[in-house]
Amino acid sequence: MEELAILRGQVGTERRHLAAVRAACRAARPSGRKLDGAGPFFTAARDYLLYITGRLHSQDLAHARLLRPRVAAGSEAAALLDDLEATLGELQAARQALGDSRDPVSGVSTFLDFLEGVLGRRRHSLEPLFAEHYTIDDWRTASAVDADSILEERERFAAVRAALPPGVAFDTGS
Description:
The protein is mainly α. Helix content is 74%, strand content 0%. The protein is built from 7 helices and no strands.
C-alpha cells in the first residue's frame, strides 16, 4: 500500500473512532436517563476524547502552519486557514474544560455539544490545498502517524469499547 494511503487511512480511522465514541456517549445517556454502570464508560470516553481530539488538533494545526506560507494573503484559502485556526482555538478551550471537569458524564456531554455545535457546522475542506501544495513529507509531518501512535490509539479505543455499558454498542463505520 502506498505510504500516503496508509497515513490518510489511519487519520480516517481515528476520525471514525471519534464518531463511534461520540455516538456511544449519546446512546449511553439518552434524554437524561442514566444507565447503570455508565460512570467508568464516561471516564474512558473522556480520556479517549481528550487524546484523540488532541491528535486531531495537532494535525489540523500542522496543516494550517504548513499551508499558510503557500497561499496568497487575503485569498479565499487564507480566509479558510484563518477560520480553521480560530476553530482550533475554540477546540483547545473546550478540551481544557473537558479535562478540568470533575464529572465525566456532564463533561463529556458538554464537550459533545461543542463538537456537534461548533465543529459540526464547520467543514474545513483543505483537500484542494493538499492537492495543490502538499508533498508526502508534509503528510508525514502533519499526520504524526507512526507505529506508536497507531498502537496507542487502538489501546485507548479498546478501553472505551471494554467499558461500554450494557445495551450500548459501537458503530465504527467499517
